[in-house]
Every structure is written in C-alpha cells, then in structure tokens.
Structure prediction request, 1022 residues.
Amino acid sequence: MNRVYLDNSATTAVDPRVIEAMMPYFGERYGNASSLHSFGHEALEAVSIGRKQVATFLGATPKEVYFTAGGTESDNMALQGVAYARKEEGNHIITSSIEHPAVLETCAFLETVGFEVTYLPVDTTGRVLPSTLEAAMTERTTLVSIMHANNEIGTTQDIRDLARVAHDHGALFHTDAVQSAGKLPLDVESLGVDLLSLSGHKIHGPKGIGALYVREGTPIKPVVYGGGHERGLRSSTENVPGIVGVGMACELAHTYLDVDISLMNQMRDALIEGISDTIPQAVLNGHPTERLCNNVNMSFAGVEGEALILSLDRAGIAASTGSACSSKTSKASHVLLAIGLDQALALGSLRLTLSRMNTMEDIAYTIEKLPAMVARFRAMSPLWKEE
Amino acid sequence: MNRVYLDNSATTAVDPRVIEAMMPYFGERYGNASSLHSFGHEALEAVSIGRKQVATFLGATPKEVYFTAGGTESDNMALQGVAYARKEEGNHIITSSIEHPAVLETCAFLETVGFEVTYLPVDTTGRVLPSTLEAAMTERTTLVSIMHANNEIGTTQDIRDLARVAHDHGALFHTDAVQSAGKLPLDVESLGVDLLSLSGHKIHGPKGIGALYVREGTPIKPVVYGGGHERGLRSSTENVPGIVGVGMACELAHTYLDVDISLMNQMRDALIEGISDTIPQAVLNGHPTERLCNNVNMSFAGVEGEALILSLDRAGIAASTGSACSSKTSKASHVLLAIGLDQALALGSLRLTLSRMNTMEDIAYTIEKLPAMVARFRAMSPLWKEE
Amino acid sequence: MGFEFNENVIEHFENPRNVGEIPDADVIETVGSPVCGDMLTLYIKLKDDKIEDIKFKTYGCGAAIATSSLFTELVKGKTVEEALKVTSDVVVEAIGGLPEKKVHCSLLAPDAFKQAIEKYRAKQ
Amino acid sequence: MGFEFNENVIEHFENPRNVGEIPDADVIETVGSPVCGDMLTLYIKLKDDKIEDIKFKTYGCGAAIATSSLFTELVKGKTVEEALKVTSDVVVEAIGGLPEKKVHCSLLAPDAFKQAIEKYRAKQ
Ligand SMILES: Cc1ncc(COP(=O)(O)O)c(C=O)c1O
Ligand SMILES: Cc1ncc(COP(=O)(O)O)c(C=O)c1O
Prediction:
C-alpha cells in the first residue's frame, strides 16, 4: 500500500544524513561532554559543532544557543525564565490566543503564580496586528511571545514589526519558531527577537531535542536546576547524539532552504487547487498568502475530521485534524475557533502538512482519494444538504 | 592503543541491543505518538512497550512511569513538583548533603521561593542515619529526598528505613536511583518510595531520556507545561526512540541484574585490592561494604586528581575525579568534604566506575599502569614526603 | 493516540449498514450536535411492535459510525422491548471492544433509539 | 570539558624539565596550597645575577605541570631582569596556547619566581 505522510507539522522523518551523523555517538563515541578524558573531549567537540550549526542557521553566536529537550521546554524556559528573571520590573506578559499549548499552558501556569497575561485576538486569517499589540502594552509588560508561524493553520506573523513594538515599550520578545524553521528564513537579527524556540523533530532531526536562542545579556532563569550545564541555564548530561542530530538538521535546513521552500510551495498550491477544484464547499483556513509553504488546512462542511483522518489512514495517507497535541480530545481547536470558524467547520478541518520528503505523486494520490471520502461522509451526514 | 573506559558513573556505552531497538524509530517509524493515524499508532505502541519495560524493572505499574529528558529533570519534577503540590501542607524539605547537584541545586532554588531545606549530614562512610532523619522531621515536612547510591563514592543507603521515617511523619519520600539502577535491585514496593528518578544513559541506554516513578495518588505538579503529554505531568512530543531505548536498557538491566552485579563486584574488589597492594597510602573513600558494585573511589596523598586523570587518559584509561558535573571547576567535591576528607585528599581522589562491559583485562591493565603514575606525581609533589 | 480499532470496527466504518433516510419513517430522532462533536439521526419504521426498518445518518468519528451501523443491524427485526436491551455495552461487546476513549461514541445509537421510542409512544 | 591540550603541553606534562629540589638553593619559594587546588615550590640558584639553576615541585593539574616546566626552561641562564619578563602571557604563547579555563595555571611559576626574587633581594 501507498504510504503518504502529510503530517509533517506533527513530526518529520529523520533525514538519513542526520541519522548517519548521530550513529557514532550512540556507538563508540559515547562519552559525557563534561568528562575530562578523551571520551569526554570527543563528545564536547561534537556538542560544539552542533551548537555552531544551530547558531549559523539562526544567524546567532554559538554561546547564544542553549540545548533543551524540545520545543515545549524551549518555550517554557523562555516564558518562565524571563518572567521570573524580570519580575521585579513587571508582572505582565503578552501572547496571542493562537499559540501552541507549550506557550498557552505555561502562561496559564504563570497566571497562577502572580503574573498577568494578555491573550491577543487574531483576525480571521490568524494574524496578530501590531496595533493590537501596541494597545496591549503596559508599563509592567516584560515579555511578549508571539509565534512565527502557527502549527495548525500555517499563518505567519510579521515578527519584526511585532518585536519592534515590544522593544519600544521596554519588553523582551520571544518567538516560537518551531513550525517556521526550515520553511522561512530565520535570522534573529532581521527578526529582531531576543529569544527563539526550535524543536529538532519538526525539521527532520530527532525527537527529544530542541534549542532556545537567547540574545546575549537577556535576563533569564533556569526551569530545571542541577550540574550547571549549558552555562547554568539548562542542567543535565548533554544529549550528545541529539545535539549532533539537531545540528545536522539545522545545517541541512539552512543549506537547502530555498530549494525546500519552492518545492513545498509548489506542492502546497497544487494540493489546495486540486482539492478546491474537486470538492465543493471546501474552505481554506488561515491566510491565503502569508502562510507556511508546507501548510494546507481546509474545512469541509458536514464532515467530521476524525472520521476523515481514519479514512485517509486506511488509504495510507497520514493527516491530522487540528494539532497533534489537541487531537486526543474531540474539542474543536482553539486556533480555528479564534479565527472565527463555527464549531462544525472547526471539527471538520483537515490539516495536510508537507516536507521536503514529499513528492508530487503524494499530492496527486491525495487529490485522487480525498473527494470520494468527503462525498461519502457528506452522504451520511445529517448536517449536509446537497444543493 | 588500549581504550579502557572506567567512567561508567558519568555515562555508559549504549548497549548494541538498545541501539538496534531504537533504530527503526529514527527511520521508517517516525510517527508522533499523539497522532491519530497509523504512523502515530506505531509510535504509541512503542511508547507503551517502553513504559511497561521500565515499570517491570521498578516493580511499578506502567501508569506510574513518566518519561523525562534525564535524571536531572526527573529530580526537578520530583522536588519542585511535590514541594509546590503540597505547599499548603508545609514548606519543609529534607535531603542529604551528598546529593547530586540535580537535587541540591533544585533545593537551593526552592529556598529562594519560600521553602526551607534541611541538608542532613552523613557519617565518614557517607551514610545517612535514620535517627538523623528522624530528628530533622517536622510537622511541616512534606518531602524527603535521599539518593539510593552516591555517584562519587558509591555509598548506598537503607532507603526502606529512611522512607519509613518519612512516612511516619506524613512526608513523601523520593529517591534518586540514577546510580543504583542496574547495580542494585530496584523494587519500589520493597524500597517503599513514592517517587524514584532514573536516567537512561547511566544504564547503557541513550542520553537525553529519563524516567520518574510516581506512586499513584501522589500529589505532584508539572515543571514544564504544554500539550498535556504524560498524563499532563510532562508535556512535549514523546521522544519515541529515547523511550524505546531506555525501555530496552531497563529490560536488559532487569534480566541480567544478578550476573551483572556479581561480575562488577568481582572487578571492583580486584581493583581495590590491586591498587591497595601496589600503591602505599591509598585510601578507599566511602563505605567498605555498603557500596555500589561498580564504584572505586580512592585518594592518594600528595597527588592532584586532574593530573592523574590526564596521565590515565594518555594511557587510554578514562576515569574521573569527583563527579563529571563538578569536574569543570577544581573545587573539591562536596561529597568528599562531607565525609570529612581534607581538601588535598579530596582533590587527589580518583573515581573508577565499572559497567557490565568491562573485563578483568581492563582491571589488570589499570593496576599495571596506575602505580607508576602515582609515584611520578608524588615524586614531583611538594606535599609528598617519602617515609 | 493512534487508531486502535479492531477489524470489525473498521469493517463497519468502511461499509456501514443501514445508512440513509426512511421517507415514511414512523419516528425520526436526532441526538448530539456538531458542538458535542457527534450527531446522529435515526429513522425508524415499526410494524406490529417490531422494527421493520431502521436507518441512520451521522456526523461523528469512526467509532460513532461503526457502532451506529452495528446497532441498526442488531435491532432490525427485533421487537421494541428486545431492541431496548441493546445497550451501549451490548454494542461494544458485539463489535469486539473499543478503545476506552471511544466507548462513549457507542452511546449515540442506543440513546437515540430510546428517545425515539419514548417520542413515538408519547405520540400514540 | 575534555582535555584540549596541544602536543607541546602534553610533551611538557609527560616529560617535565627541571623537576626536583636544589639542596643549596639561594632561594626557595612556594605559592598556592592544596586548598587552592594548585601548589608550586621553586628552587633557584643564582650566579652573577643569572639563573644558574632552577627546579620545581608542583601539586597541580596538567597545565600547571607543563607551564611550570616550560617556565623553568625559558628562564634558565637568563638574567633576573630578563627572567622577570617571562610572564604568564609569554609562557602561554611559548607553549602554543592553553584552553581558556586553564590559563590561570600558567600564573603559578611566574608568580612564584617574582616572589622568590623579592624575597631574595630583601634578604641581601
Ligand atoms: C508551534 C509549536 N510549538 C511548540 C511545539 C512543541 O514542540 P515539542 O513537541 O518538540 O516539545 C510544537 C509541536 O508540538 C509546535 O508546533
Ligand atoms: C546521582 C545522579 N543524579 C542525577 C544525575 C543527573 O542525570 P542526567 O545527567 O541524566 O540529567 C546524575 C548524573 O549526572 C547522577 O549521578
């Protein structure tokens, strides 16, 4: 059976070159990077190379890169870390209402310990307007966190403009770039951000490793305490193979960025066009142009998302409805509700997300299979009236 | 050149069977365990198996096992998690003065946010006496955390007795079993603990993955917030290969525990005897019998530890002086000072730690090389007087 | 979480029995709504206190489709009293089990049926 | 952190020059202590304001041993004034560089030498 993976925003296949780079560090080069002997030195050199690769990818210096266990920990470190470090200066944090739970739940936690959080609304395409941010800034705002690109609908934000607003009011700016990495240029200077989160497994790197960029001089406290690794910000024996893997993944993302983007753009547009042409009442969620090159998110009136995912799965196509994280419950995605979709359309959303490993055959196969499935569900749906 | 690795308390080589088990989850089985489709299902099944393997190793049920990024995060979750969850009941925590920095630094942090911490002294062998704990318990004590075995000197504690004291006073009991795993039986029922920390890379599993056992019903809060993975206690996309790896590592440790222990015991005793026989004024640090089967920690009067490590490294022998974490600074280890060593002997300590992958040849080679090195350093030491 | 459905569930999901409407149904009943995530409409035709025909339409997940299909199959031809004994538990067992998180979906059809019968009886 | 020493450092560490004591030294000076982690004793024999012989004993890490060895080699035969110009920077450069964390170890010998000379001059 065909196996077509269109759920690359949930996780990606590890690039064979990444696996190859990691392998020796499970095998003979198993040293602890903090050890004095040559096993340790070998490991430390690998960590330094990984750190340089990530730094180059971000246009940062190696000492501004801190390794974490993933996007979630990076987001937590940025938010908890800066909130606590600046708590004498203010207790107000601003974020958007369409952030990933790694940001939203951290904010909810911070609210329980004395911080105030403003959740900015977005327009119907999922964009945060700089004027909305401007209006929310207060004297006590120490941190603004707005994601570079949304994981469900793929809408991208003008981070540079938003960061400028934050800075004008003396706040620091964090962006969750977990989804934009490898799909948009990520230069911390042009973005103008103070902190930026990455996750390895979203860019053909391994799971369980992430990175946080922290501009030099940014006040920040650890979330996890211990032996003082990562210059005291994130203790624990360095995950050497993971660091080697995410380093290589960043290097590949950096090298092939332009090619990757144009390939994904082409596949995305073909997918949207193919679906719109063959399925009546298919609505594209998110922004028509300011969207990730790898994201297609559509709703089909009268169709329930999970049933559709199951049908696609039976045909060998892996897709998702809402984000992987919220797919455990059948509640409609907070992102789709935030952009104004009604509950039924939100529950009927289909997310197809691409990577450089997809092909035009994958797209053709999906366009061939999907219309009959939608038709079948509509035919059995009490919500669907043929016009 | 010979390459003899005697730094297994810093980290261990990944067992080839562990690598083999992990590999498919980097390759074709790269799904996200939270995804609905079959890629996701495959990943979820792997996670369930890993969780069962860890649970079996600990004599726990799978739902009491939570995966983390390593021993440090496990310790942080146990301490921060229970301290905050029980803060209405009391603000007092008890630990020992020879804990790993993952515990000590977390306690130091908790002290800055309103908790009181008692650091129990140890005797000259590194043992915490139940009577010392008894005397420190108060009405406000919510948590006691004492490590099962020390990472530097290998001294083991009677966890069962200590846990009973804690429970008698209504406190919960956590043990850091990062070093005892694979070297002592670890049954949470016989130990009588409520929480227990593990780290993959200390038991021939991968780096960057750990586990925390949490007895059902234990009040605990997350440290890292997000999508609600690990039943809400530890969010982030599951590190599937890591979980598969630590699961397999636990299964192997469980299956071969008796054989492994007797092999390491034999090598340890040969090492201690060989060194004591050939090097005058060699002092064994820690407990003569209540010590890990894989730990040798000796001090040589007049010799500085780091120079000795370098000489050993030149001969292909990887060893350490103090724990890997504290070897970045040349301060004497807090553990050796806590058991009453003077600064010079503490700085002159050599830690040799074994695993099931060592051989009697490794031991023989080390005993052959070490005496001349110690003699050379003593000959150039202003602190050494030949008797 | 992954779909942990057995072959029976999948078979009913892919080939649901008794899907559709009955134009001259004796009673039509809808439970759920898109807001709950699941919605089911049952069309029932009765004859001599027996279920002569039953059809359904549903907006819901795979488990909802499969259990609704099986339910209609189980009750068709039965007397109303017999059919009322086809509870969610009976359906789940007949289909060979459901993942815990999906058990609630099997309530849809029995609930709708019970309500439909009450409505029908009230009308009489 | 791993030992990031170059071959020169390793060579001096493994074969340190001028290790030992000078029984009839003109001046003996010790800096550091085991409490600091590093300790060095210098034995100096002077003739006509020249360093006729110099030996050392050290309790310290590899970098301390290597830089002390190189220092003694550099100053031997020099005048006191010339020798005082052999600072830590000079030693680090002559040995081909040290990891940043280890640079402080190269202070041991120049410090001890400076103190020794002051002590010697005070005695005169
Ligand atoms: C935008 C965004 N942020 C954060 C995360 C969390 O990353 P991880 O699962 O690696 O912790 C994800 C993915 O789940 C994401 O899509
Ligand atoms: C006793 C003990 N606890 C905790 C840790 C921390 O484990 P990790 O480095 O995997 O975070 C270690 C090892 O470094 C240890 O020896």
